[in-house]
Amino acid sequence: MSDPSKIKRPTQRTIAAKMGISVGAVSRALANDPQMAEETRALVQKMAKELGYSPDRAAQRLRTGRTQVINLILPPHEEILGFGTLLIRGISARLENTGYHLVVLPDFGPDKSAEQIRRVVRDKLADGIIFSRTTPDDSRIKFLLEADFPFISHGRSELATPHPFVDCDNYAFALQAAETLIGRGAKRLGILLPPERFTFRQHLQHGFMTAVRAAGVGYEILDGISLDSNANAISANIQKRFAAPEAPDGLVLPGDVSGLAALAAIQDLGLVPGQDVQLVVKQTSGVFDLVRPKVASLYEDLSEAGEKLADLLLKRIAGAPVAELQYIQPVLGRLPANDTLSDTQLRAPGVS
């Protein structure tokens, strides 16, 4: 039986010899050099895969000073079904054939992501960092800007210095959701918001308030719970509120879990969604396509967000200016087939 430690691993020179081309050409093809013919790149990458080639990362790091690693700081995001899976899927798709590897670092407590980021920068564990759940005065963004370390956030801040980000258009979601409820005859709207520390709470609240003030209808922000509350707490709170006088007749719910919790609470009281109470949910998982009775929803494509995060971070690592690395992702409509509103009435501006 052969000793695995003595098996000679294929190198770029091995690929070059097999294909009758230069080592430099192999190196450029494996790095996805856009100036090289796509057919040549594909042939070299196919040969590398057949031979079982993988780069010597230690040698690469010594030669280039780069780790070829991207770190994703991943919080639980319990209000969004499949958040981590969908985001990782998109990031991984974009990093394929780039030579970069994704390393996920879990973040399960307050300030843990800041600690992780400081360690990554201090020990040079990655070439770039992706993180989420941003605040208006985000200390992580300040630190990374001062350290001049490549990063991108899923979410924005309100810092004076611009930074790379990808963010869902939560303003457009809340505005369109509220307008839809008003269009269906709702006279008193309620919205569930994230905790006050997060920037996207302000975007959601701004969109919601723009719609209700323009229409002159009543409104309330659901009290005692937030988007981060667990499903049982959300359901119990909504059930209590709807059992009291002057309850809302329309609800805006910015997450899959809060939408399911609200639906359960309403139906447990004997109310009929779509008749007694109108709802619009922001979903990411597609679960509301299967919920009955059907509920109007707007869709945030987290896989697309992941691809965009990786794409812009790679550009940042390559030296692209920050002004080119900011993207606000539109929300898309997903209405039941029997709905009285057309799909375009629930579609974000600029999305065909």
UniProtKB/TrEMBL annotation:
Superkingdom of source: Bacteria
Xref: Pfam families: LacI (PF00356), Peripla_BP_3 (PF13377)
Keyword list, A-Z: DNA-binding, Transcription, Transcription regulation
Cleavable signal peptide: none
HTH lacI-type domain boundaries: 10-64
GO molecular function, one term: transcription cis-regulatory region binding
PANTHER family: HTH-TYPE TRANSCRIPTIONAL REGULATOR GALS, LACI-RELATED TRANSCRIPTIONAL REPRESSOR
Protein name: LacI family DNA-binding transcriptional regulator
Species assigned in the record: Parasedimentitalea psychrophila
Highest classification ranks of the organism: Bacteria, Pseudomonadati, Pseudomonadota, Alphaproteobacteria, Rhodobacterales
